[in-house]
Amino acid sequence: MAGDLRDNRGRGDAEWRWPAIHPEGRKFGLIGVGIALIVLLLFDWEIIGWPLLALAGGVFAFFRDPERVVPQDDDMIVAPADGLVTLISQVPPPLELQGPDGDGAPGLGSDPVTRISIFMSVFDVHINRAPVGGTVKRIVYIPGRFMNADLDKASEENERQHILIERPDGRPIGCTQIAGLVARRIVSFVKQGDIVAAGQRIGLIRFGSRVDVYLPQGTDAKVLLGQKIIAGETVLAELGKLKLIEGVSQ
Question: What pTM value is reported for the model?
Answer without folding.
Answer: 0.86
